[in-house]
Amino acid sequence: MAAHVQDPHQLKDFYNPNVLINLGPSHPAMHGTLRVMCRVNGETIEDANCEIGYLHRAIEKLGEEKTYHQWMVYTDRLNYCSALNNNIAYAMAVENVMNISITERCMYIRVMCMELARIIDHIICVAINALDLGAMTVFWLLYHWREEAYTMIESMCGMRLTTTYARIGGMSYDLPDNLRQRMWKFCEELPRALDEVEGLLTSNRIWIDRTRGVGVVSKEDALKYSITGPCLRASGVDHDLRRDRPYYIYPELDFDVVVGSNGDVYDRYLVRLEEMRQSVRILKQVNDKMPNGPLWVNDKRVQIPEKLDVYNKMEVLIHHFKIFMEGIDVPKGEAFTCVEGPNGELGFYIVSRGGPKAWRMRVKSPSFMLFQNFEASVKGGKIPDAVAHLGSVNIIAGELDR
Amino acid sequence: MTTSIAPKADYLKAQDLLGKRLNEKYGTDRKVEFDKLNEPVIWAKSPEDAKMLFRSFMLDESSKMDFLSDITAYDNKDREDGPKRFVLVYQQYSTTLHVRVRIKCLLDENEQALTLTDLFNGANWLEREVFDMFGISFKGHPNMRRILMDERFSGHPLRKEYPIKQREPFKDNIAFHLGANPKEIDTSITESEEK
């Protein structure tokens, strides 16, 4: 071929070692607005460079400009696949700075919401990862249950995707009456769908060939790159904040921490699948034990008054407006609160200098660390492997760029 | 004190012990505080001291801080935390004891911090983000560029004087990057073909 090319410039292109393939930022396989520039040799990626910031919305800056209540809605837009988890983690962070301990019923509701959000997030990850690799049936099977979970969330707070369910010191609404029955049905039937998915993928020759030994992140690398969550556990590190730094009622619940061994795409898939089962286990226990009692903490600083009283009593009306117009007064101090989010350690570092606005609102997102590692671990693989790898670590652009 | 932490969590004992030990060992000439979750906060005397503390916590057998949780900073414009402009914050975590420790360091506007990329690869992007948002640069960092904002962007958004509604639109795209380590074009092959 090359001998017939007359133009030397064309020849130069032919032998150019800097052949670049641009993946993203708007491509269905790149899950949001991720961009990776790969230098390829044949089909092997020799070097990769990630570029982020396409979804940067100055959320941390807004955290310093808005009151603690107003900023709650921005937490939905971090990891929009598990908005409930962000809401609750943020409410928890503010409560820790204010030294508030919420009521038992509220704790149960919050744990239930967090586990439901974890299931949704893992469903998205497993289903889309399989879809990227051509297994569409898994997507249909699992998305039915994601819809069911979203409908349950809708019955709790009136929203599906961006929930804003949590409030500082409580929740915006109590659980609906029929949720117990619905949750029970969900917990019974989701594992059956998971069995079907497992039947489709786990011992599937094509799936194994595409995923095993692909996108390997070793145990040492995972620790050096500060990866957390399912990806760290898939690499063989036994670490889960729910067990190791227990918050709320997790010590009373019975669940296992799932640990993989190889750290490849296949192990990450297995870890996520098993974590969904563990979450269902937690949901069952929480659903059975759900205590009665007050939803809101009895603390005048944060408690949002009952609507009926707001309309009928002068003092309560003033109190209501004080909370929403001025905001709540958070004392001077700081705390770094982390929860085990679906993708890993989600932390809110709040520095307060008194008043209704934070001095510094830092969001420590797990996706940031995962994408940083992606840049290094994608080298040496093929381009289709990069797509498999990216799908399996579940990087959410909203959380990555903030 | 009431917080979200489960009352009888195992790590709380280790945390108390660590707080006491740090206070004894490092508290003589450094300020040691405890935050709202009773986690120790150590104020380093200088950027060099901050890195020294980070490394010694990492290697110390009794603290075993083998995990970098976060690197961030905040503006100290009102000088409430000390005489300098910024506060650099390292969050360290132990995967065996499950305790956290926070190292803080005061920095002036033109002062450089030391990079942690030689200890943790994960520090790379975190330090770039601090540089992007606050303008604190890190000595010895391999790739000190902006990360979230455009490369042509001026100013540092998380400084308190940066107005929240300021916009800086660019008409065209940024130039192509050849990746982190671009390869030299080997001209010898094409030259031999041309002959």
What would your notes on this structure say?
The complex is a heterodimer of chains A (402) and B (195). The model of chain A has no long low-confidence stretch (mean pLDDT 87). In chain A, strand 7 and strand 8 form a beta hairpin. Chain A has helices at residues 8-15, 59-65, 72-76, 83-98, 104-132, 136-157, 179-201, 205-211, 219-224, 230-234, 241-244, 265-289, 307-312, 314-326, 366-377, 383-393, 397-401; strands at 19-23, 35-41, 44-51, 166-167, 170-171, 333-340, 345-352, 360-364. Chain A folds into two domains: 2-51, no CATH class; 59-401, Orthogonal Bundle (Cytochrome-c3 Hydrogenase, chain B), CATH 1.10.645.10. In chain A, helix 5 runs antiparallel to helix 12 (265-289) and helix 12 packs parallel to helix 16 (383-393). The radius of gyration of chain A is 23 Å and the shape is globular. Helix content of chain A is 51%, strand content 11%. With 402 residues, chain A is mainly α. Chain B is of the alpha/beta class and 195 residues long. Chain B has one domain (11-194): 2-Layer Sandwich (Beta Polymerase, domain 2), CATH 3.30.460.80. In chain B, 25% of the residues lie in helices and 19% in strands. Chain B has helices at 11-26, 47-59, 123-134, 187-194, and strands spanning 32-34, 40-44, 67-75, 86-93, 100-107, 113-114, 138-139. In chain B, the strands form two sheets. In chain B, strands 1-2-5-4-3 form a five-stranded mixed sheet. Chain B has a two-stranded parallel ribbon with strand order 6-7. Chain B is elongated, with a radius of gyration of 21 Å. The interface between A and B is large, with 73 and 63 residues.
